[in-house]
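Re: that backbone. Tokens:
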């Protein structure tokens, strides 16, 4: 009985933690300076300063267990062909370590420490700083240029310049004769990405390693050339300290740093980072995964979906998801003209659930899309279900009619309905991903009798169904409007 009470307390506490924006991950997400989250053999890995790292089966619940040799600081990982390249640095960082440092690259066939193919090979130095020059060779990160297949590495901290150097994608070693190029100042823990003709350089600004008083935030500049010059949205060069804000602190999470892009396809991009302090987790440094949005050609941090009651609006038609029930008129009369104008002004009460629910069927009720009138059969409460696990970066959710336990569910016919009570069945759990334009994709965890990943889609102006998501179309895009 005691263990059951403790279990209930644990999930109640976790539920309260998830009531706002869900930013940090669950399980044991404790890490500092995480590498970009990388998939290997159906598991996700990230590595941190000091050695080791985290593993997750679903990208939501994390545990210890990732392994890397070398110790040092701020690793990064990239998968090219049959190799996983790992970079990290030793030395530097100021304080007792000074600024003399080396950046290393090594490779392994797998990140799974239990695999017979797990072995890091060919560790080599690809960049250095002597402690006197204007650079501190730590905080390295990879970019594989999608336009030509060339491999680049950025490194550096607040002590001097951020630099970029070219590596051989076949070996991970430095390209012969390649000299580092200065591309930024006043930042550290840089990362790069490419989109629609632009190279983006993301750098972490502010102070680190001071717990809840850290001021870390992530900023960005862009260039048409991988070697720069990088400028921000106001035209300020990053070599002069420029940088457009991407993400900053958001209570209870302090000091986001170490950006890593995760492109999940189908218009879903996310990024990993750490928070210098999660106030709920005793001020520990934790892994965060958030949606990445794009506005006017610039990356912007999105917010992971949070609990609330919403109108779920179709981007196709502007109509709202609703129960297929009889429309119940409100007792307001016609007040717009004629004799009605002579009557006193009296507020019209909003229609309540108790006004209409008695006329609803007791069993399953199908759903449709219709004009939004803020009526009870159109208001959906979305609640995280932390004990059910999650999809990449987010828990699964239940979607119920506000004030009831009537839950949205997928059917074996690849349609959607509502069941009288939420049971936690997999077809009643929903993955909600924010797309790069700010709208959302809604997917059931399971479609009964099917192995396909299908999304809630407006196949007609008033007909929802479950079909394969098409990122080029509005039909599978939805907007959640808080009620």
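Recovered sequence:
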């Amino acid at each position: 009985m005691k263990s059951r009470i403790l279990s209930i307390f644990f999930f109640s506490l976790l539920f309260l933690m998830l009531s706002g924006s869900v930013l940090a991950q669950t399980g044991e997400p404790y890490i500092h300076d995480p590498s970009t989250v990388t998939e290997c053999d159906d598991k996700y890995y990230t590595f941190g300063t000091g050695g080791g790292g985290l593993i997750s089966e679903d990208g939501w619940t994390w545990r210890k267990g990732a392994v890397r040799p070398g110790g040092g600081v701020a690793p990064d990982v990239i998968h090219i062909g049959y190799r996983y390249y790992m970079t990290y640095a030793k030395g530097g960082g100021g304080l007792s370590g000074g600024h003399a440092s080396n950046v290393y690259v090594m490779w392994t066939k797998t990140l799974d420490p239990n695999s017979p193919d797990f072995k890091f090979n060919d560790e080599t130095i690809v960049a250095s700083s002597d402690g006197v020059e204007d650079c501190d060779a730590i905080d390295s990160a990879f970019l594989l240029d999608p336009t030509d297949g060339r491999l680049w590495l950025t490194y550096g901290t607040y002590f001097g310049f951020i630099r970029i150097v070219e590596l051989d994608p076949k070996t991970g070693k430095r390209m012969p004769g390649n000299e580092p190029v200065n591309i930024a100042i006043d930042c550290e823990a840089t990362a790069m990405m490419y989109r629609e003709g632009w190279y983006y350089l993301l750098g972490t600004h502010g102070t680190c390693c001071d717990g809840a008083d850290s001021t870390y935030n992530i900023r960005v500049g862009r260039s048409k050339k991988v070697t720069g010059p990088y400028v921000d949205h106001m035209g300020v060069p990053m070599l002069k300290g420029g940088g457009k804000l991407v993400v900053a602190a958001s209570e209870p999470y302090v000091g986001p740093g170490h950006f890593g892009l995760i492109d999940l396809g189908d218009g879903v991009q996310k990024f990993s980072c750490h928070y210098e302090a999660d106030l709920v987790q005793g001020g520990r440094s934790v892994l965060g995964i958030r949606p990445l949005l794009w506005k006017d050609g610039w990356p912007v941090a999105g917010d992971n979906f949070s609990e609330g009651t919403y109108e779920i609006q179709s981007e196709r038609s502007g109509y709202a998801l609703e129960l297929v029930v009889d429309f119940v008129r409100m007792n307001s009369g016609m007040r717009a003209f004629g004799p009605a104008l002579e009557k006193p002004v009296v507020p019209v009460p909003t229609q309540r659930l108790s006004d209409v629910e008695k006329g609803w069927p007791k069993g399953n009720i199908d759903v449709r899309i219709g004009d939004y009138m803020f009526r009870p059969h159109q208001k959906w409460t979305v609640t995280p279900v932390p004990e059910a696990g999650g999809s990449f970066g987010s828990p699964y959710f239940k979607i119920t009619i506000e004030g009831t336990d009537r839950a949205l569910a997928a059917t074996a016919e690849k349609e959607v309905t509502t069941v009288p009570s939420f049971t936690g069945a997999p077809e009643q759990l929903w993955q909600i991903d924010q797309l790069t334009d700010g709208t959302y994709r809604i997917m059931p965890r399971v479609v009964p009798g099917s192995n396909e990943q299908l999304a809630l889609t407006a196949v007609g102006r008033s007909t929802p169904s479950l079909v394969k998501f098409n990122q080029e179309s509005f039909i599978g895009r939805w907007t959640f409007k808080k009620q």
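The longest strand covers residues 253-265. Residues 308-482 form a domain with the Trefoil (Acidic Fibroblast Growth Factor, subunit A) fold (CATH 2.80.10.50).
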